Amino acid sequence: MPCRRHKGTFVCRYLSFYDPRLKRTFRLPLVHIRVKHSNVAFKTDALVDSGATATFVPIEIAEILGMKLPAETHDAVGAGGPFSTFLSEIDLIEVFKGSRICCEFEKIKVLIPTSTGAVPHTILGRDSIFMVHDITFRELREHTILRQPKKRE
Predict the structure, then answer these.
(1) Cα dist. 12→3, 77, 125, 132 in Å?
(2) CA–CA dist 105, 46 (Å, integer)
(3) Which residues have a Cβ under 8 Å from the Cβ of 148 and sit 6 or more positions away?
(4) How far apart are CA 14 and CA 144, in angstroms?
(5) What residue segments make up the domains of the chain, in order of their start?
(6) Does the global pTM surpass 0.85?
């Protein structure tokens, strides 16, 4: 998974998310992203999730992008329990702060739930954004801070 990280520290404010099942609005560490695949681009939000070991893309987004999904499925476990996923690859995911790109992931492996509603957002897990940024969640200020990691000695 080639990645281009752009220099600097990026502070992203939490965004509001309305959960129709709970009929409640939450403030979450969401970031703006653009997903590109096979000449189709789609802007949406993604959850920065330190508890996710993988990156997930909702099947609804995979359908918008016209992705061809494999026949084989893999099991995954989320906050709502176990669910089936397809393992696939997306051409490009760009993470934004305003109009600036924080980082880009090319040919990124993603898990796509087989059913709608399994994940409400794209989820950037520890296999993607956490590999290129030191991330701090400031709950009281509702900020997600993406920093370039310090070099090892």
Answers:
(1) 20, 27, 17, 16
(2) 13
(3) 5, 7, 8, 9, 133, 134
(4) 7
(5) 3-18+25-147
(6) yes
Q: Are 131 and 54 in contact (CB under 8 A)?
A: no
Q: Is the dihedral of CA 92, 102, 132, 83 positive or negative?
A: negative
Residues in a beta bridge with 89? 109
Q: Are 79 and 57 contacting, i.e. CB atoms less than 8 angstroms apart?
A: no
**pLDDT (tens digit per residue) in 44-83:** 999 999 999 999 999 999 999 999 999 999 999 887 788 9
Cα distances from 55 to residues 48, 120, 126, in angstroms, run 10, 13, 8
CA 95 to chain centre: 9
Question: Closest by alpha carbon to 34, among 89, 99, 85?
Answer: 99
Amino acid code (one letter) for 15: L
Is 135:122 a contact under the CB 8 Å cutoff? no
Q: Answer yes or no: CATH 2.40.70.10 is held by domain 3-18+25-147.
A: yes
